[in-house]
Design a protein that fits this description.
Elements: H1 9-17, H2 23-41, E1 44-47, H3 49-65, E2 76-80, H4 107-114, E3 118-123, H5 157-164, E4 170-175, H6 181-187, E5 190-193, E6 213-218, H7 221-231, E7 261-265, H8 275-290, E8 294-298, H9 306-321, H10 339-350, H11 353-365, H12 372-395, E9 398-402, H13 418-422, H14 429-434, E10 438-445, E11 451-458, H15 463-476
Parallel strand pairs: 2-3, 2-4, 7-8, 7-9
Antiparallel strand pairs: 1-3, 4-6, 5-6, 5-10, 9-11, 10-11
Length: about 475
């Protein structure tokens, strides 16, 4: 057998079920891999090796006692550090939460634990998930495994880099404006953003409450589907949780794409798109056509407004959500001598620059005399963007498009120019504003051997067709099997 860390999730599950390996051996292999690569990549904020090995030992005993135990028993997983894991600190990439240890598990973590999965640690993230590069973390920049001078994407950059570098077989991320799909594209892995409300947000440290989705990053669609099947479903503790029955993705059906209608939006192939990215994505769309899909040119006319709309709505929600972090209940406190100065000094010194920028943008957009002009108008345009997707899905089953305008950019490339960084999200933001699902997966490389991703976007609760089509593509190609040399 090859190195244990080289196995993808479905292979790990099979090897454990066949008793070819133990969870202890597997977990130790990943911990050794992390120990070797972590100084160069900076993927994890918090590692939990002792507890991970204890969980693995327990899983091995349980599997011996009951061979019919859940198939994910003893499988390691990494968690983005914006999700609560009981007893393990949750920083959200911020100094203001560096000592916060949640007394409870997020719902998705509960479901992982119930299946017997082994939590290795918490992955790096832009502070409060605010960023597209993982450069905004208070715990240092995560490096892209394909080229350590470049970013892994964000804000789930730690999770994407962990999967790409084979430091974990699977990881959880979150996607508020592309934060699963964009790092999946930059790191050459597969990343799913479910329909808004499909996966519980209970236990997620919120950024934009009407936009946040908990997603999955893995080597391929098969791996992602296993975890999605586990974590999706109704949760009464999340008021935005969907009433729809639990979803079960089945990828064993027909691999041909006969009668599948794929829309290609004009608005996603215009000025600013790296030529190599456009070529690779168009080639991937051609492959879908070869597999039997019908290709239709469509229009999403309000796409150009997605960036300004998002950067009014998301900061406004962040302004409200982050008001609770004042040094009194969570994390460290900077004593200012009186209540007002303690608030201002704690938040001023412990929030990072980008977080403060977005809080100020959001507070301004919600302030008296401006709320209708900015936040209210943004919500109206959001409705138009949602309408674009609804009209498109009357004609097509899913939409194929680039994930990002470029491949992974150099660390520091957008430093001092937040607008250029915000424009990195131009192709991913619309799906979050509309609440629809999307999946990103590798479709090629540029001349620097940096991964190129394509995304498929589906109608609400159409994860089955989304993942089935992506799986058909991956069954006919091998881009997803390529690994960085480390």
């Amino acid at each position: 057998m090859s190195h244990l860390f080289e196995l993808k999730l479905t292979e790990v599950v099979q090897a454990l079920s066949n008793k070819e390996i133990s969870s202890r051996e597997l977990t130790q292999a990943y911990l050794d891999r992390i120990d070797k690569l972590e100084p160069e990549l900076n993927v994890f904020i918090t590692l939990d090796p002792d507890n991970a090995l204890a969980q693995a030992n327990f899983a091995d005993i349980k599997r011996q006692e009951d061979p019919e135990e859940t198939f994910l028993l003893g499988v390691p997983i990494a968690i983005k550090d914006v999700l609560a894991v009981k007893g393990l600190r949750a920083t959200a990439g911020s100094k203001i939460l560096e000592s916060f240890i949640p007394p409870y598990d997020a719902t998705v973590v509960e479901r992982l634990r119930k299946a017997g999965m082994v939590i290795i640690g918490k992955t790096n993230t832009d502070e409060f998930a605010m960023g597209s590069s993982t450069e905004n973390s208070a715990y240092g920049v995560t490096h892209n495994p394909w080229d350590t001078s470049r970013v892994p994407g964000g804000s789930s950059g730690g999770s994407a880099a962990a999967v790409a570098a084979q430091m974990t077989p699977i990881a959880l991320g979150t996607d508020t404006g592309g934060s699963v799909r964009q790092p999946a594209s930059f790191c050459g892995v597969t990343g799913l953003k479910p329909t808004y409300g499909r996966v519980s947000r209970y236990g997620l440290i919120a950024y934009g409450s009407s936009l946040d989705s908990v997603g999955v990053l893995g080597q391929d669609v098969e791996d992602v589907a296993l975890i999605y099947n586990l974590i999706n479903g109704r949760d009464t503790r999340d008021a935005t949780s969907s009433q729809n029955p639990k979803d079960e993705i089945n990828l064993n059906g027909n691999r041909t794409l006969q009668n599948v209608r794929v829309g290609v939006p004009d608005e996603y192939f215009r000025k600013g798109l790296q030529s190599e990215v456009e070529t690779a994505v168009r080639d991937a769309i051609q492959t879908l056509e070869t597999l039997g899909a019908e290709i239709h040119i469509i229009q999403l006319p309000h796409t150009q407004y997605a960036v300004p709309v998002y950067y009014l709505i998301a900061p406004a929600e962040a302004s409200a959500n982050l008001a609770r972090f004042d040094g009194l209940r969570y994390g460290p406190r900077v004593d200012g001598g009186n209540l007002r100065d303690t608030y201002t000094q704690t938040r001023g010194q412990l929030f990072g620059r980008e977080t403060k920028r977005r809080i100020m943008l959001g507070t301004y957009a919600l302030s008296a005399g401006y709320q209708d002009a900015y936040y209210g108008k943004a919500q109206k345009v959001r409705t138009l963007i949602q309408g674009d997707f609804e009209k498109a899905f009357e004609k097509v089953d899913l939409i194929a498009a680039p994930v990002a305008p470029t491949t992974a950019f150099e660390i520091g490339a957008h430093q001092g120019d937040p607008l250029s960084m915000y424009l990195e999200d131009i192709y991913t933001l619309p799906a979050n504003l509309a609440g629809v699902p999307g999946i990103a997966f590798p479709v090629g490389f540029d001349s620097r051997r940096l991964p190129i991703g394509m995304q498929l976007i589906g109608a609400h609760f159409k994860e089955q067709i989304l993942m089935s089509v992506a799986h058909s593509y991956q069954s006919a190609t091998d881009w997803h099997t390529k690994k960085p040399i480390l």
